[in-house]
Task: structure prediction
Amino acid sequence: MIVVMRPGAERAEIDAVCSLIRAEGLEAFLSEGQERTIIGVVGIDIDRVAHIGSMPGVEQAIRVTSPHKLASLEHQRDRTRITIGGTPIGAGSPLVVMAGPCSVESREQLFDTARLVRREGAHLLRGGAYKPRTSPYAFQGLGEAALQLLAEAREETGMPIVTEMTDASQLELFERYVDLIQIGSRNMHNFTLLRAAGQGRIPVLLKRGFGATIDEWLMAAEYVLSAGNSNVILCERGIRTFERATRNTLDLSAVPVLREMTHLPIVVDPSHGTGRRSLVGPMAVGAAAVGADGLLIEVHPDPPHARSDGDQSLSFPEFGGLMDDLRRLEYLRRRGQPEPAPAQLPAAVGSMRERIDEIDERLVRLIEERSRLALSIATAKGAGNHGHDVVRERELLRRARGGAGPMAADEVEMILAAVLRASRAMQRRHALGAAGALSTLP
Ligand code: PEP
Ligand code: MN
Result:
């Protein structure tokens, strides 16, 4: 800490500040300038002189070390990796997807969802048992019966489970059933609950309070860490702003900001963060792109009839689509590790697979031939004239939409549009004489 005295501060005021610092077991280093005196304070327990800024003669006291002792990168340079029921998260582990319903509603609803998210590649199963609802009249969750169902779903699918603890008295119950304890946004300032979770041995997923700054959130994490539980994961879930187009404002910048401040793993919840199904996918991909270690996604077999948060829950096909996008963008791949071998297929399927491989090869050769021609055309047109026949392309896309195959018109158009875009990017790159990689996504 640096204490800046007012210009012309009295000798007695300077001495009083130094005496206080030393009385608290810290060291004081005096630097007396022409105009004013500056006092450097050194020691571990800097909080003991937190009130020094209001002493007579002091202009300001500036903290130079982080107040988040245990969570900060100053305290620990190596990023924390936490293993939840066998699944690692943080410190460069592959993106962890935690998915499932907002609330556990019934055995059928939970098991259908668990099987589906498992099949699509999720790592953890979520499901609320105790729901901290804004209204006391809204569905409050099935309680212990839901914990029981979650544990059975884990038994069947092998997925560890994450669910919210709302009261310190539930700790013993949670230790029996749960792999990751969620502390909800409404409870981020519940210091009794944080301390209780800190005394347990189960990892904690600490959601950001919807009105909390990043500093306050990290101080909440300190409550858990300082009580003895070093397995804390932070979860950005949106904050309340003046914006009404979304349920909350998902602060994706919190991810890179936190990465500069803390070694703890960071998860993003785009479901509560946006409150709207159509926005969950784009923000999930965005979160992965800015460096999140995991995602928390609400999924429901029948979102319009969900007992809580139906508007923001993905349907099964929507969740599958998102997992495809995440894989396509590489976020779900294990860095530096081989993919697991694909399952053995029946012989008939195997021969169809070979045919598909042949077709894919032919497609690649056709695309190569197409690009050579496109390049010759661009060269023939001459430098500075690499315009495209947009009218012809539009007509081609229109015809592609009318196909008779099993693909939907939109899907055919997606493929063709990707070929056209990549071709334009290639022409531009050659026209500019640059050898850089393509930066646009198909
Ligand atoms: C939830 O995950 O279902 C939940 C209630 O989240 P939050 O605490 O972020 O509102
Ligand atoms: Mn919810």
